[in-house]
Structures are given as structure tokens and as C-alpha cells.
Design a protein that fits this description.
This protein is mostly helical. The chain contains 7 helices and 2 strands. 49% of the residues lie in helices and 5% in strands. The longest helix has 16 residues, at 108-123. Keywords: DNA-binding.
Length: 153
């Protein structure tokens, strides 16, 4: 899986908002950009995508800024990625179940579907609250702690 810069920045921005969710005041875009090292123009587009997806709300003005639109424990990493990049797994821009294969390649469709299932198993499990608190689900920690997970191939 290739994680785009936009998806990485969007998740980081959303975690930043989750970490500041206890405050009564919205978080300024500049604070997110500075805190996460995200170019402001890029962040504005990302926050617009997150707002359009209903994950973030905003308020204009001197006291304005951004909040999560739902509790941080109700927003998964998958939700954020889908908001900025679309489906988690596609084959040539289509859902894996919609891509026909013939002959010897026919089993490939099931491989792509299994890949999507495993992506979902991780990305739909981890919430912004998990990340903001630094307390990841045990099964995610177990996967990441496997030495094989750290081997680049």
C-alpha cells in the first residue's frame, strides 16, 4: 500500500485536532500546520476535504478554527484516508470485486480482495483517540511488534 502525502498529512492533522479536542476553543489551522510540519496551503485543502466528509467542522473569525465533528473515538484512520484519497484499495481505479480476470489470472481478484480486507482490519480499528492517547489496540501493537513487520523487502 502506498500512503500518499495527503493521507499522511490528513491523519496527522486529525490526530492534532483529537489531541486538542478537550479544549473549549477550536484549533487554529496555523497551529496544526506548525505543530505537524504541514504546509499551510496543503493543510487548507486537506481540512476542506475533511470538512466536506463531515469529519471536521470549522468556524471563521478571530476565535475561529477547527474541531472534530465527531468524538475522536468514532473516527478511524480509514475514515480520514477515505475522505482525502477515496477507497482504501482499488485496482485500476475500480473496486476489486468489479475487476474481471480470466484464465490463469482469475484467482488474482481474491488476492486483491484479501489485501483490502487486511487494510480495513488495521485502518478501521485504529481511531484518532487511540493515536492521540498513544494507546493503540493490542492487536495492532502485536502486529507492529513482529520483527518481520520492520523488514523492508
Amino acid at each position: 500500500m502506498r500512503i500518499s502525502a495527503k493521507a499522511d498529512y490528513a491523519v496527522r492533522a486529525a490526530i492534532h485536532l483529537a489531541a486538542n479536542a478537550a479544549g473549549e476553543r477550536p484549533t487554529k489551522g496555523e497551529a496544526v500546520a506548525t505543530g505537524q510540519g504541514i504546509p499551510m496551503k496543503f493543510l487548507e485543502n486537506i481540512l476542506g476535504d475533511l470538512r466536506h466528509a463531515g469529519l471536521v467542522r470549522s468556524q471563521r473569525g478571530a476565535d475561529g478554527g477547527y474541531w472534530l465533528n465527531r468524538p475522536a473515538d468514532a473516527i478511524s484512520v480509514a475514515d480520514v484516508i477515505r475522505a482525502v484519497d477515496g477507497p482504501l484499495a482499488s485496482v485500476r481505479g475500480q473496486r476489486p470485486e468489479d475487476v474481471p480476470y480470466e484464465g490463469a489470472a482469475e484467482p488474482l481478484q481474491r488476492v486483491w480482495i484479501a489485501v483490502r480486507h487486511n487494510l480495513r482490519a488495521v485502518l478501521e480499528t485504529v481511531t484518532l483517540a487511540d493515536l492521540a492517547s498513544g494507546e493503540l489496540p493490542a492487536d495492532i501493537v502485536k502486529l507492529a511488534d513482529d520483527p518481520e513487520a520492520w523488514v523492508t523487502r
